[in-house]
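Section handout, structural biology tutorial.
Before the tutorial, make sure you can parse a SMILES string by hand: atoms, branches in parentheses, ring closures as digits. In the record below the ligand is pyridoxal-5'-phosphate, and the chain has 386 residues. In the tutorial you will relate the predicted structure tokens back to the input. Do not try to memorize them.
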Amino acid sequence: MTLYFDHAASTPVDPAVAAAVAAALADPALQANPAATHAPGRAAHEQVEAARARVAALIGARPAEIVWTSGATEANNLAVLGAARFRASRGRHLVVSPLEHASVLAACRQLEREGFTITWLDPDRDGLIDPAQVAAALRADTTLVAVMAVNNETGVVQDVAAIGAICRARGVLLHVDAVQAAGREPLDVVAQQVDLLSLSAHKMYGPKGVGALFIDGTTLRRVAPLFHGGGQERGLRPGTLATHQLLGMGLAAELARTRLGTDRCGQTSLRDALWMALARVPGVLLNGHPLRRSCHIVNVSVEGVDGESLLLALETLAVSSGAACASASGEPSPVLRRLGRSDALAQSSIRFSLGRGTTAAEIEAAAAIFAAGVAHLRRLAPPAVA
Ligand SMILES: *Cc1c(COP(=O)(O)O)cnc(C)c1O
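Predicted structure of the complex:
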């Protein structure tokens, strides 16, 4: 059996969420279009609005500030493209972290093709962004800053509140990809002064294919939509709302909010136990800041082994690896390269990501498989002696 250590890629659907989604699909009272004004339409609409309130509560927002999307890829695109394009007459300059998810980076590259300029921030070797650097990068024509809350590869946690205070004081919008932070780190868009924030249901025990973008009330009418159609979501994201999906995300958000403390404590101690066990293998390096990290990710690089072979040796572990990224894009992880890791160490990186269901026994088993795998590879191909 495979041990699942890839919760940063997708979490299993919580059984209560799966039951709620299935029940909504089968419920004759929820089949109408939630935009319809007749009684069945209003019944569906009510469920959608209850779910919206639950998502809003997770991040300290008002329900009216939540826009449903198909996931965080769409939410990130809507935030970056929509906010930048709407403000193009005021300025065409953005300040962005190079450690963002592909959906932010690719949206930025699209903006560059449209004549926008990006200043890329320069994180330190632990993956942290100094808020003072954000302040220094702002120009008179800057309209948007984008910095993710918790990095999906390393788990490093940024100081969103400090960056938020700087942006708010300068009248610049702050977009935060909070996909990995949701349910793992406290989020409060008011206290942290965030203007746009992306969430994805399937990274917090909800269904795939649904997400949300928080847009601060004062910004709501100042984002250009990506899609054009009916007036749903105030015209920001037209299309018939998927009642069952939204209801599932709402329940997932409710569970994430109420279980934050328990989930976080449990996973932090398991995460530390995992790192302590992995660190007993010689030549294993932790990627990202040793302390400013979320409870669910341990990313390590292994000296003197080939990434592809390592992944094969860890076949019984469902983990993510620098080598797997490399086979898709032909490039070693840009995130790890930015942290100063060589191509070889970026290639031989393994990301373990824990979840609500992870047990101490699984941690022990995973650490043993890892130690045996690395030892085996080193016996086959001992590191060259200089
Ligand atoms: C998974 C992920 C996304 C994309 O979310 P989808 O809902 O799968 O499109 C965006 N940002 C981060 C940090 C992620 O981990």
